[in-house]
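Q: Predict the assembly, please.
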Amino acid sequence: MRFDLQVIASWIDKGSRVLDLGCGKGDLLQHLTEHKGVRGSGIEISEDKVARLIAKGLSVVQGDINREIQDYPDQCFDYVVLSQTLQQVYEPAVLIQEMLRVGARGIVSFPNFGHWRIRAQLLFRGRAPLSRELPYEWYDTPNIRVISMKDFQNFCHRHGFSVLKRVPIDTDYHESEGHLPKILTNLRATYGIFLLGQDAPPEPQPGESVSCP
Amino acid sequence: MSEHARDNGRDNGRDKSPGLVEKKYLTLGGIDPEQPGGAMTLQSGAELSPITLAYETLGELNQEGDNAILVCHALTGDSHVAGKYNEDDLKPGWWDVMVGPGKPMDTDRYFIICSNVLGGCMGSTGPCSENPATGKPYGLEFPVVTIGDMVRAQKRLVEHLGVTKLLAAAGGSMGGMQVLEWTVRYPGMMHAALPLATTTRHSALNIAFHEIARQAIMADPHWNQGGYYDEPGPSLGLAVARMIGHVTYLSDDAMRLKFGRNLQDKDAFSFNLADELPDFQVESYLRYQGKKFVERFDANSFLYITKAADYFDLGLQHGNGSLVQAFSKAKARFLLVSFTSDWLYPTYQVREIVTALKKNGLDVSFCEIEAHCGHDAFLLRNDRLFDLVRHFLNTTHETVRRGGSHAL
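A: Predicted assembly structure:
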């Protein structure tokens, strides 16, 4: 499993309810289902991937994450994960707001545009950066956002998403191993992973039950 | 019990047939103590008795009783889901590609039940059955039945077969409607639901096509207000009804690829409207389909069953008009499938179901399969569909065996 997914998995409590947005190959959901007894659901747009995910025994709805997330009741999940998809989201604030509506916690990971190699390419070569984490040319990239860890931190602050945890990771070539840099994080992290919550989580009133069957 | 061919090895399972099957009959009587004599009060308020269901089973119910799958057939289907009655039958059951040894609904593993719907004409009580009050076929005396009535009768059959909880109910089109009805009517009696290419209520377009088909039958003078059982019967009207239906099961692409503008046994147009031989291949095909259908189907049954499908409105009946509320009763885990070229039950109709299920926090999977053959896709060989069904059933069965639950 990818190193960023290993970190994410380590944050998720046993037996929790997890929604994975853009769950791709389903490695995270499968790992969580098998090792943590998580009740997981996924949303994925590609028919091919959806079919493979269902074949793995996962519960997955084919569709667009921005649209599909709207159907879930408030606080239906303990965690909502958006891993390495944020850079392709048209309205990140709206989506993250929705993540924190349907889930108690949001987990967001993305390739860090502030990494030194990317800075160096622009600075020394004068070219649009290309990296392992962002391997596309300007003309064929599906990514419409460039995000650094610092940018995302500011974004969360501005939109009232409280950052409960913020972990820079520096992955190896295969991305299956890595470490967590302690200093100069925005320069050294290939990926950033954020654990988010609402700034002022609504306290349930006594006697009021959370409406998720 | 049916006989089953028991070949070993699954490597060439695609081409295996479940072997010989036998059509059996259950006449309901006294199973439900509230309805003595086997009468059933239908949704319309009418009483119907006796009620016979024709059904077939494949595979064996295991000791744990956790491997039963109810297959619900579509508009013109029957209990003959797979296998053959006799070795020399030309064609096997209607879902033989799906049901059999090593197939997605593996008869080596699961116990498959399929019954002809109430109102049908393939052995279950319907308008062509004898009316005990007159000793003659019911015709239009037969009470109007609904999808709910069909499902209530099926439930009695399932209980009669010793099944307390189905592993799954599965079906496409009107079969899918019955599956959806099952999920809210008997949520405690099933672990999983596989409604394919279906809807919770017909659109105006759906009703319109059914109405045209019904009018074709009723405009045939041989229909005679449904009283044709001693006469030739409305075969022309029924054939036209089938032709209309058949077009709605295909797609523009499928018809273009299959027929295009090809002529039938001709090099040029006949320029003759009175010519009995059709000009175009598609005309010939539709006439053939219509003719074949007339040989096996009862026109009154067609009227009743299409009406049942048109009346079906799950949200209205079970949720005061709210589909979300209707599904609040459901407990099953769901696999829903739509097909890209299905314009009869387009993806948006299936997505409405997915949305309502998600709003209830139910365990739901949905896949829109790329297919060019239209609504018929769910009946045809389709590896993507087969994989989904096989693995979904497998996961469900394993979860049931571990004693797990499905809700989120």
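The two ends of chain B are 38 Å apart (CA to CA). Residues 383-402 of chain B form the longest helix (20 residues).
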